[in-house]
TrEMBL record:
It comes from Asticcacaulis excentricus (strain ATCC 15261 / DSM 4724 / KCTC 12464 / NCIMB 9791 / VKM B-1370 / CB 48). Residues 63-179, 258-378 form the Type II secretion system protein GspF domain. One of its GO terms (biological process) is protein secretion by the type II secretion system. Its main location: membrane. It is a multi-pass membrane protein. InterPro entries: GspF/PilC (IPR003004), T2SS_GspF_dom (IPR018076), T2SS_GspF_sf (IPR042094). The chain crosses the membrane at residues 155-185, 205-228, 357-381. It is found in: Cell membrane. Keywords: Cell membrane, Membrane, Plasmid, Transmembrane, Transmembrane helix. This is Type II secretion system F domain protein. One of its GO terms (cellular component) is plasma membrane.
Length: 390
């Protein structure tokens, strides 16, 4: 829109939305809406909101771009309108802001489940008059979570590939190789070795019962999902993960994420009890959330945060030490965020080491199993060859 109030349409060459906005403002034009020239077909209704919920990377990009546009001089409603490419659903957020809602409340429906503390970061930035920094802080939290997920996938992909490959090889041996050899051995009239007979029984059981086995696996998966969502399996699984053999690694990730979120929220200016509640909601473990309940109560009663966290079973000592340092130095937020990052990094390093060990162990164990099966098959082939040569 020009200074005279006339609405104009056109095409401008720019690197991104922020660059296009700056170029138009330099020409004394007020952008009302920016649409990529090669834009794809828009999503209907508010479908884009569900896309953000399912894809934190998209929300991360939105928050980053929103912060850039605000720093270039755009107001929040204009920035949302620019990023709302052909009805992506952000107009609803702009409408809430126009009706008097806070920016935090307007953007909260976009946040992934369990990431309520992102709103606190944005609210803190809005309260101190630096909304772009609040948006950037929320984007950094999402980026850190995305990096952790990528590292977990990379660490576990190799063992998973080895396992799937070995299972496929075993299936081929039992369903293809053994059935082709067993009739030939019967035709020789020789007694079938016990070892090979066991392999034949395994092959026949797999051939005859694969349908029932598939149904049983499907029912088992459905039963496990239902028990996890509506039964007590979730509680049992949480207990095992936190206090079982994998406890040191899992606690490093769970409580490290909690400390990081708490530190970021405190650094944003939130009250400590509110910051604890928001960070607690972002924890994926129900038992871990229950263990943090007492922390809020203890802090309300005047106890130091480090003392309250020390009463949480299994809470990492490294985080507690840095928490004490932060309380002493008056830098509790940054120290907790640093402690959380370090705890998560150590847990990921342990997972990486474990995956490097697990891969060769799986190869060795499954190789021995496949070798044993092939040994039985080769024994049968040798016996067939000796009878044919005679």
């Amino acid at each position: 829109m020009s200074l005279s109030g006339r609405v104009e349409k056109g095409i401008i060459d720019a690197r991104d939305e922020a660059d296009a906005f700056a170029r138009l403002r330099a020409q004394q034009l007020q952008p009302l809406k920016l649409t990529p020239y090669a834009a794809t077909k828009p999503l209907a209704g508010g479908a884009f909101l569900s896309v953000f919920r399912n894809k934190p990377a998209d929300l991360e990009a939105l928050l980053t771009n929103l912060s850039v546009l605000l720093r270039t001089g755009a107001d929040i409603r204009t920035a949302l309108g620019i990023l709302d490419d052909e009805g992506k659903g952000l107009k609803a957020a702009a409408g809430k802001i126009l009706s008097g809602s806070t920016i935090e409340a307007a953007l909260t429906p976009l946040f992934p489940a369990g990431q309520a503390h992102l709103g606190a970061l944005i609210a803190a930035g809005e309260a101190r008059g630096d909304l772009p920094s609040g948006l950037e802080a929320a984007a950094k939290v999402l980026a850190a979570r995305r990096l952790i997920r990528q590292q977990l996938i990379e660490a576990l992909s190799y063992p998973a590939f080895v396992f799937v490959t070995a299972v496929a090889a075993l299936t081929v041996i039992l369903l293809v190789v053994v059935p082709a050899i067993a009739p030939l051995l019967d035709e020789t009239g020789q007694s079938v070795p016990v070892y090979f007979q066991i392999i034949v029984w395994m092959s026949q059981a797999l051939q005859w019962g694969w349908g029932y086995l598939s149904i049983a696996l499907i029912l088992l998966c459905l039963g496990t999902i239902l028990a996890y969502r509506y039964g007590g399996l979730r509680h049992i699984a949480d207990q095992w993960w936190l206090d079982g053999p994998m406890g040191p690694i899992v606690r490093g990730l769970v409580y490290g994420g909690f400390a990081r979120g708490l530190g970021d929220t405190l650094s944003g200016g939130a009250a400590i009890t509110e910051a604890i509640r928001l960070s607690q909601r972002s924890m994926g473990s129900g038992i871990a959330r229950q263990r943090i309940d007492g922390v809020v109560q203890a802090v309300r009663q005047g106890r130091r945060l480090s003392e309250a966290l020390r009463q949480v079973p299994g809470f990492p000592k490294a985080i507690l030490k840095l928490c004490e340092v932060g309380e002493t130095s008056g830098q509790l937020g940054p120290m907790l965020a640093r402690a959380g990052e370090r705890s998560e990094a150590e847990a990921l390093a342990r997972i990486s080491k474990l995956s490097k060990i697990l891969g060769p162990v799986l190869i060795l164990g499954l190789g021995l199993m496949i070798g044993a099966l092939m040994g039985g098959v080769l024994t049968a082939l040798t016996q067939i060859g000796s009878v044919a040569g005679a």
